[in-house]
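Human: I wish I could look at a protein chain and see how it folds. This is the protein in question:
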Amino acid sequence: MARINALNKLPLLPSLFIMLLFLAIETSPIIAKLLSPKGEYDFKLEDIETALQATLSQDKYQRELLVKTSASMHDKVYEDIAQDKKLYDLQRRKATELLELQANGFLEKQKKTL
């Protein structure tokens, strides 16, 4: 704040020069970093980033493969179950019993309303 007050008391040209000088001092580390060649830190950072990307892509591929394998196994299991004659007969008997119970329940309910 004191700098701004001091700049207001100076004429335009010197205050502009001082402002540009402060701007250059504040931005010089950023400009130096942008102009410098890649260093050891940059290479290590790039190595860490690419290693992380490789790990993530490998994990994604393994999850997709797990889903495909699991789906394929379930398809085969349920296809085998569907082709099982004993299981089909059992389910048919149970469904028939259930329908008979429903029909009897409906009949009893109708009798009560009369």
